[in-house]
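Two folds, back to back.
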Amino acid sequence: MQLMKPPAFEYVAPATLDEAVVALADDDAMVLAGGQSLVPMLNFRLLAPTRLVDITRIADLDYIKDWNGGLRIGALVRHHTLETSPLVKERFPVLHAAMRLVAHLAIRNRGTIGGSLCHGDPAAELPGLALLLEAELQTTKRTIAAANFYEGAMTTVLEQGEILTEVRLPALPVGTGWAFEEFTLRSGDFALAAIGVLVGPDTRIAAIGANETPIRLNCTEAHCKDLSNMDAILEAAREEVSPNSDLRGSADYRRHLIGVLTKRALTVARERAA
C-alpha cells in the first residue's frame, strides 16, 4: 500500500514573532500552528509549500486575558483550552458550548483558534463564531473585523508574511441569551449545518456550512424585531443561505436544516435572555 506523504519542505521553528515574520518572507512559505487541517492537506498534496514555519514555540501567543469585560485570546490557544476556560464559560458561553462540539478530544488538544480561523473551513465552528461575536482579529500588520476576514472558500485577506496574533471579543450586553445548534451525521464530523444565535438588545445569527464562507444572516436578523413571527424569520433564513450539495447532503437539505436549527436556536436563546 502506498502511503500518502507530503512533498519535501524546509522546517523552521522560530522562537519569536519577528523571526517568524522573516521566515515567512518566502512566497511559498506557510504557517504551521496546530496542524490539524494543514497536515492532512499536505499529506494529500493539496498544498506544497517550500517552507513550513512552526509558530508553536512562540509563548507570547498563548493566553486568555480580560479586555474591558470581553476577552483577548492569543492565536495559539487550543480548542480544549477554550472549552475548559472559566473565563470563556462566564463571558461567552456560546463559545464554550460550541467548542465541545469540535471534532474529537485529540483534535481539540492540538487545534488552535488562530489555525482554525485562518484555515477558514466554512463548516468549522470558530469562523462562524467569530462573526457571531463580532471579533476583532489582530495580525502583525493590522486589525481586521471578522466580517471582513474571508474572501471566499478557505480564503482570507491575510497577505504573505502576515500572521494572526490575537482574537479580541467585545463584551456582550448583560442578560444576552445565546444558543448554538448544529447537525452532524456522526459525532465529531464537520456539521452539515450549524446556527449560532445571540438575543439581547439586538439579535445576531451566524450560519455555518450554509455558504462558501461563514455568514451573518443580516436580513434574517432584521426580521427578528418581532420574534413571534417565526415563519417569516425562518423563510428569510432559508433564502439568505447558499449551501452546496455534496455526498453528505444536498443544498436543499442543508437549507431545510438551516430553518430547523434557526428555530431551535432562537427559541433557546430567547429563553436564556434575562
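---
second:
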Amino acid sequence: MPFFRIDEMKRHHLNPHLSSGEGPVIEGQYMYFRINIKRAGTGSEMHYHPNELMTFPITGKINCVVGKERQIVPPGTFVHVPSCARHSFRATEDGEVQYLYIKDRTWTLIGSAADEALPDAAPSATQVAKALKEGKWPGKAKEPQNSQAIVEGLGRCFYPMIEALDAPPASAHCEQWVEGANMAFGFIESLAGYGRNSDASPHEMFIYVIQGALDAEVDGEKKRAVPGDLIHMPKNSAWRWQVAGKDNARYAMVRSTPKLEAEIEHNGAADNWRG
C-alpha cells in the first residue's frame, strides 16, 4: 500500500523504558517512517542506537540534545542524529510536539540508555514489551564503561530549512537536502504544475505532504495527497507525482542511499515486530 493517512493509523509506544513518544510506524524496505508524538514536558532520556535517525518537527517544539549540543528546535528545522550519537528529544513545556522520525532498518526502533551497553542483537518491540511486562527489561547491569554512545566530534546536527512552515510561498522550485551515511532528507517547495516521474525508482523514498497537494501514482495506485498524507515509493517501483491546484506544495522527502541498500540486501533488515 503506497498511501497512508498518518492521523488515522494506530499509535505505538515502542520505548516505554526510555521515552514517552508514541505514534504510527510504516515499515519500508530499508527505512522506518513514523510520526513521533510527545505530550508537553515529556520525552526521552539520553540514549543511543546503531541506526541513523532523521527528524523534522511539524507542530510544537523539541528541547533537543545531540552529543553535547542543546537547542530548542521549532518546525522547519531538521535534526540529524548519526549512528550511536547520544541524544534526547523532549517536548517543551508549552505544548505537544509532533515530528517526522525516520530510521534506517540496520537496527530496530528500540534504543539503549546512554549509560548502558548495546544488547548483542537488535531487540524487537515485541520482545521488549513482553520483557517489560514480566519485569525482565533491561535485565542486566548497565555496564556504562561499555556504552558505545558518542558525545564528542559529531559536527553540526541542526539544520534550519525554513523560518516557519506557513511562511510566504517561494517564487521558484527549491530543495534543501542533508545526506547522511544511510539516508537523505529533503525539504522541498514546488510550484503549481511541477512534477516528477520514474519507471523504476533507483531508491526507496517517502514523501510527507506539509502544505498544498500532490496528485500521485505508485505502481498504478492513485491518490491526491494532502497535508498529513504519506506516500511510499519502494525501490524499483514506478511512480509519478505533480503539484495539484494553483498553490505551491511543501513536502518532506526521504530516500535510502546505495550504502544502506547494499548493507540490508547483504545482511537483511532488522525486524521490529517479530523475533
